[in-house]
Amino acid sequence: MSYIRGIDVSHHQGDISWAKVDDDIRFVFVKATEGTSYVDPKFHTNVSGARTSGKKVGAYHFARFSNVKEAQAEALHFLSVVNDYDLDFHILDLEVGAGDLTDACKAFFEVLRDHKRGGLFLYSFPAFMRAHLKPQVVDSDVKLWIAHHGAKSPTFYYWPDWSIWQYSSTAKVNGIAGNVDVNYAKPELFDGAKPASKPKAKPAAGGLLRRGDRGPAVKDVQLQLNAKGFNCGAADGIFGPKTESAVKSFQKAAHIAVDGIVGPQTRAALAKYQKPKAASKKASVPYPGHLIKRGSRGKDVERVQRAVGVKVDGIFGPQTEAAVKAYQKRHGLAADGIVGPKTWAVMF
Questions:
Q1: pTM of the prediction?
Q2: Dihedral angle of Cα 164, 168, 169, 174, to the nearest 10 degrees
């Protein structure tokens, strides 16, 4: 069989001279994101360069998740970065983690389907697949991209066959300084690749809502956002730029993926979100003059527990410490789990 060659790139390849890249390189996978916040600094440049050179282009997300909820958040982060592009492929790069990641992997792809993204691939390597995935990971619309360097043919699990094989990470390609990953694709897969379809303009009530949508479902979201302090302007049922901006502001405040799209996660967060009370001088609490940390007890611990949203029992245990660290991280403080003067000042 005559395979088709392609490469996968990230910022590690530096500046790529796309006009000089070998003609037989007919597809490019570009790193877009990692975890829930990282964006590859070369993503936009690499996508544009690969497109200009006439190659098929896909984007991949390097997973850091350990459960379904984290996988959903990472998928939304990935979508928030690739949303402006009609890509031929959308790839989950799953090569680190612990335990059974089958359900989390499937949840990631489900979010991509909800957002009308196609050309789905799972990237992994044999040992990781065997250790962390089960046969149930296979879905009919998800193809396998397997990494097995230096082999005559790749080893893989669960899928009936591989679709893309990363056979080396030390190849030399014109236009790229240093080494680059190279891949073979089955010809039938390459010929059948299609750009992602655009979302429907008018989703049904309860479905995804985004800029350009209209109707009662949009108006309901606008009313909720306005009531909770995120100004959409008039609740007119038109999802315009002001509504999108309000949605993003809310998502940021609720600590969920910021993509400006109202889906199940955003709806659930809206339902339970409580508008913060206006701060007042009377509400401030003087710093008690001592560190509050694991092992501390008393009324000051109770105040901290109320501020970070855990069970109020006046005992500073592991759960309180973890919640304090998360609070500190969200507010740009040193996440040491200890409530000192700076943390106390932000809390109260």
A1: 0.57
A2: -90
Domain 4-192 has CATH 3.20.20.80: yes
Provide the token pair at 108: 């990631």
- Class of residue 125 by CB neighbours under 10 A (exposed 0-12, middle 13-18, buried 19+): middle
DSSP state for residue 39 in the 8-state scheme: E
Task: Tell the residue number behind the tokens 């959903």, with chain if given.
Answer: 72
CATH of 283-347, one of 1.10.720.60, 1.10.101.10, 1.10.12.10, 3.30.390.10: 1.10.101.10
| Residue 287: burial class (beta carbons within 10 Å; 0-12, 13-18, 19+) | middle
Q: What is the mean pLDDT of the chain?
A: 87
How far apart are the C-alpha atoms of 16 and 26, rounded to whole Å?
A: 15
Long-range (24+ apart) CB contacts under 8 A made by 245-251 are 246/222, 247/221, 250/225
Quote the pLDDT of residue 337: 92
pLDDT tens for each residue of 186-209: 988 766 444 333 333 344 344 688
Residue 118, number of CB atoms within 10 A of its CB:
16
**Residue 39 has what pLDDT?**
92
